[in-house]
Amino acid sequence: MRRRASLVLLALAVFCTALAPLLRWYAYPRLAKIPPNQYQEIVLEAKDATLLDYFDGMKPKKVDKVTIIQTLKGNVEASREIEASAGKDVVVWDGLSHVVGPDGKMVSQIPERYIFDAHTQDPVHATGEMVDGDEVKREGIEFKFPFFTEPRDYLYFDAQTRTSAPIHYVGPRTFRGMDVYYFEQTVPWTKVPMPKKMPIEGIDPATIEATTGTTLWYTAKRMFWVDPVTGAPVNGEQIMEQELRGGIAASGEGGKLTAFSGHVKMREDYIRHTVDLVSANRTKVLALHTYAPIGLGVTGLALLGLALWLEARSRRGPSGAEPSEAGPSGAGSSGAGLAGAGPTIPA
């Protein structure tokens, strides 16, 4: 029975030991990916911000709050079409940044289509990649960092300027009990396209610069607290300024008008939801990448050790001692042993 049990344990040990590297280096790279049908909504707020009032003399005014509703919706049909030609798993996110003033009226809307590799988050260039209707060719990441983010700088795409620049790794931080990496990116003052959808009906922003000489300029400091396992930001903030310069803004101080100025932060309820979601996904990724392979490897070694121990016991006999070499005519200790082995009399 011991011999049979040791063989079963040995087979299980081989199975667990072989499955551990298979799970880590074959299954994980294929299973760890962004789902193509993901939907996410985040609400950000800039309190005590400055906002240009287009309907009251084009003057910047202090307002209680400006709200930005940012949605990312996975386009499954578009993903399948691009995957057919790209030959890899692709995610297509149709995004929308909807900016609302304190009165609930729309300030601007900027749609995006972001196409990227589901496993690495590297951009995939395909027809339809755009920001606010303008065709773009992204370099670097946007919205999400790669799985197992490294403590280094990354190239990050800025939708306002339509360009990419390094986002710098600053150091480790603790956010709501999670160990995260903190990143910062500063975008210098840059001339940017005006949003195609603005609060004034009937005005084409594309013709404003040509007819009045008015241009839009933008600068920002972008901050992310990123979970290094999933690569998902658990918090994001942005200190942003926009100015109209020249043309209709010539009446302002220094020939410019503040279109927006504020510190944009995630709303508290969305921070809590994001932290809970990232924590759950973090456990799943670690289970596939680390916990299960290590657990299987340790289990395999333990089963191997137990199988070898049982095999050794089976070879030593039922008493646990090596068989005696004395013959049937042996005397001395053998006789003493027999003499002392009388029947047991119960008390």
Give a summary of the structure in a few sentences:
With 347 residues, the chain is an alpha+beta fold.
Word description of this protein:
Strand 10 (215-226) and strand 11 form a beta hairpin. The protein has five helices and twelve strands. Helix 1 runs antiparallel to helix 4. Helices cover 30% and strands 37% of the residues. The protein has helices at 2-31, 76-86, 205-212, 268-316, 333-339; strands at residues 39-53, 59-74, 90-100, 106-117, 130-131, 134-135, 154-158, 163-175, 178-192, 215-226, 233-245, 256-266. Residues 323-347 have low confidence and may be disordered. It is elongated and about 105 Å long. The protein has a twelve-stranded antiparallel β-sheet with strand order 6-5-4-3-2-1-12-11-10-9-8-7. With 347 residues, it is of the alpha+beta class.
| Beta-strand share of residues | 35-45%
Helicity range of the residues? Answer: 25-40%
The major β-sheet equals: 12 strands, antiparallel
Low-confidence stretches: 323-347
Mean pLDDT comes to: 87
Structural class: alpha+beta
The helix count comes to: 5
Write the layout of secondary structure elements.
Layout: H1 2-31, E1 39-53, E2 59-74, H2 76-86, E3 90-100, E4 106-117, E5 130-131, E6 134-135, E7 154-158, E8 163-175, E9 178-192, H3 205-212, E10 215-226, E11 233-245, E12 256-266, H4 268-316, H5 333-339
Q: What keywords describe this structure?
A:
347 residues; alpha+beta; twelve-stranded antiparallel β-sheet; elongated
